[in-house]
Design a protein that fits this description.
The chain is mainly α and about 140 residues long. It has helices at about 5-20, 25-40, 45-50, 55-70, 80-85, 90-110, 110-135. Helix 2 packs across helix 3, helix 2 packs across helix 6 and helix 6 (about 90-110) packs antiparallel against helix 7 (about 110-135).
Length: about 140
């Protein structure tokens, strides 16, 4: 990694730390959010039917969010491929997911800035996944 990249990564980590975002908070967020997802009337059945090993899945999600929020570079999965196989998911589910994610953040985030920081990223990721899953250029 170049010095520039290393410095840029450190700036992102420093900015996140100033909002109270670090690996410990990301771990807490993922654990709490997916605990809520598993109990949710709409989202729970979708996730619980697909995920056999929650410990493994949570570890993957923690690495994903560390990469997103801290530019940690520790996630190497393929979320679009994984989500395309979810035939029971409809576009409106993303709004439900985002609403629950935002409420979880509001309940546990160390600062209001941390809520905004995560929600901006979650909304972009959600839009990207929706496009990948549901956009059909032949219908243009």
């Amino acid at each position: 990694m170049s010095d520039y990249a290393r410095e840029a990564r450190q700036r992102i980590r420093d900015q996140a730390a100033a909002m109270g975002i670090d690996e410990a908070f990301i771990s807490q967020l993922v654990d709490e959010f997916y605990s809520r997802v598993r109990r949710h009337g709409v989202l729970g059945p979708i996730f619980n039917a697909r995920i056999d090993d929650w410990d493994e899945h949570l570890a993957l999600l923690k690495s994903f969010w560390a990469s997103v929020a801290l530019n940690a570079g520790v996630y190497s999965g393929k979320p679009v491929v994984a989500h395309r196989s979810l035939s029971e998911v409809e576009p409106w589910h993303f709004g439900v997911w985002l609403g629950l994610f935002e409420q979880t953040l509001k309940d546990i985030a160390p600062t209001p800035e941390a809520v905004k920081y995560f929600m901006e990223r979650a909304q972009r990721i959600g839009e990207s996944l929706k496009l990948a899953m549901f956009f059909d250029p032949s219908k243009l």
